[in-house]
Amino acid sequence: MAKGKIFEDVNLRNLYFVFKDRSDAGKRLVKLMKDRIDIKNTYVLAIPSGGVPVAYEIAKAFNLPLELLIVRKIQIPGNTEAGFGSVGPDFEVIIDEGLVKRLKLTQQQIEKQIESTKKTLIHRNKILRDNREFPELLNKNVILVDDGVASGYTMKEAVKFVNKKGPELVIISIPTAPLDTINRLINDVDIIFCANIREQYPFAVADAYQEWYDLTDEEVLRYLKNN
């Protein structure tokens, strides 16, 4: 696949706390995406939980169906905020081998965290999707949405899963991300919309938001019901 196109709000480059909340971020992405995408035969796939309010605004603005794509980072032992890889809906695993080596994780620790992540995926698919059949994506356009990416491993797994389904076009739409992660992801998709690209490290998705909290499953289900 040829390298895709990247669209950003240049006025937000390297700025912090630019969004009031996730809904505001979604509305900002809608403005960035307007007149730049063909909305025919398109699905919006939200990565829960944080991606759901963002995706809801995009789906509502373009009158598109909203579905969940449940992908989970493999948490570093003792650190729920950081991960060393991800697991997709089909249980395919991506590992950041360099980080695993730096952390000196044992094979037993790695396998334990992977199994824990798979159990979480099974639970969330039942609670949030009622184990529904995944939608047919052959020759469809797909917009993958999260509330931001850091290392990009969760989004990379989501892209890999979607690309197996034979879509016509794969688009990532995210409020915030580091530049080097954007440059890695663009090799596997057609378009990336990212309103707030930052080059500084350390990088935290939460630093783009004035209001930030973890959504409950009940909140996620409300957004889906209202779509």
Features:
Rossmann fold, globular, 3-stranded antiparallel β-sheet, 2 domains, 227 residues, 6-stranded parallel β-sheet
Description of the structure:
This protein has 227 residues and is of the alpha/beta class. The protein folds into 2 domains: 5-69 and 132-226, 3-Layer(aba) Sandwich (Rossmann fold), CATH 3.40.50.2020; 73-128, no CATH class. Helices cover 36% and strands 22% of the residues. The protein has 7 helices and 9 strands, in the order βαβαββββααβαβαβα. It has helices at residues 22-33, 51-62, 97-103, 107-129, 153-163, 179-185, 217-226, and strands spanning 5-7, 42-46, 66-68, 72-76, 79-87, 93-95, 141-145, 169-178, 191-198. Strands 1-9-8-7-2-3 form a 6-stranded parallel sheet, sandwiched between helices. Strand 4 (72-76) and strand 5 form a beta hairpin. Helix 1 (22-33) crosses helix 2 (51-62). It starts with a strand and ends with a helix. The relative contact order is 0.23.
How is the topology of this model organized?
Layout: E1 5-7, H1 22-33, E2 42-46, H2 51-62, E3 66-68, E4 72-76, E5 79-87, E6 93-95, H3 97-103, H4 107-129, E7 141-145, H5 153-163, E8 169-178, H6 179-185, E9 191-198, H7 217-226
Parallel strand pairs: 1-9, 2-3, 2-7, 7-8, 8-9
Antiparallel strand pairs: 4-5, 5-6
Helix pairs in contact: 1-2
